Amino acid sequence: MLIYDLDIAALEKIFNEWNEPAYRAKQVWQGLYQHLYSSPDQFSNLPNSLRSRLAEEFTFAPFTVRTYLDSSDKSTRKTLFQLPDGNLVEAVLMRYGDPADYPSPPSPLPAAEGRRGEGKKRRTLCISTQAGCAMGCVFCATGQMGFKRNLSSGEIVAQAMYYAQMLKEQGETVTNIVFMGMGEPFHNYDNVMAAVDRLNNPDGFKFGARRLTISTVGLVPQIKRFADEGRQVNLAVSLHAADNDERLAIMPVNKKYNIDEVIEACKYYVERTRRRVTFEWALIDGVNDSPEIARQLASRLKGLLCHVNAIPLNPTQGYIGGATNRARAAAFKQALENAGIPCTIRMRRGIDINAGCGQLAAYTT
């Protein structure tokens, strides 16, 4: 049994069955999530007999590290994990705000945009929720590989713990976690929310909900469910087109949940939570990066508390489309802002190691 699959109540129940006092479960919980222990041997506050039983009954690492890659500017690390059943998943650590540590990568954007976040040291994790993905977005490497299986809540949490332990050894901490790696988080809703609750637990990892972001291609029922649960976790919706036919051509999910339905669900989310929704937009040269399309998008989003997060498309093996250029990105942004829709052009990271948005595919070479 993977220990990260348990919440505190389940852990207490097991310790009760072992005739161990309740405080022992809390010691283990705090060891995992506050002290970031990764092995029973590290629980020095437990008797040897209990440490031995923990080792016998639980798995503390649900994967082995097959390999890792660092980007040339040292700002990004991608790790390839192998699960016990042979499935592979990738997770990414992104470092922001250390201009003295690494040079700023070339950007197709105005310099001020490319340096967004400098001066504020951030360590952001991009973690996966599935092995593969069933959504089939044509420009996404994970979608191109197809769906393998859902990850358990513990397998999701363990990715965050792996990097948290690594950063602790370097005297640093995780500042942000985004569920934007492999898979569609809302297609694995229950396990993802269990992972969120475990990371957010005030007696454990104590990771603030507003520093967590979940990205979805727009699964309407789950957006509404998420809204009804009233969580403070940030919501990002991958839109990428302002016309239903154009969106269907690149995102098959639009056949089931079209743009109108997705935006209505987002309005419901804002009404219920009073929180802003972010729309993700991969700028594809000559496809969805014109001022005209920006104005069409602005018309759809008018009156909605939202923000457009755009990024030039990252290359993948299975899609021939290319990234927009600097001038077209700036014009797209300006057209949105002229219409009253705030927009940020994000800096591309980890492209040289296929660690950028839409590039994760668990390649072994």
The helix/strand order is HHHEEEHEEHEHEHEHEHHEHEHE
Derived from helix and strand composition plus strand pairing, the structural class reads alpha/beta
CATH superfamily of the largest domain: Aldolase class I
Distance between the termini: 31 Å
Low-pLDDT stretches = 99-119
Gyration radius from CA atoms, angstroms: 21 Å
Counting H and I runs of at least 4 residues, what is the number of helices?
12
Average pLDDT figure: 92
Query: Main sheet, how many strands, which sense, barrel?
Result: 10 strands, mixed
Return the domain count.
Answer: 2
Strand content: 15-25%
Apparent shape? globular
Helical content stands at: 25-40%
Fill in the CATH topology of the largest domain: TIM Barrel
Q: Mind telling me the CATH class of the largest domain?
A: Alpha Beta
Strands in their spatial order, largest beta sheet: 1-2-3-4-7-8-9-10-11-12
- CATH architecture term of the largest domain: Alpha-Beta Barrel
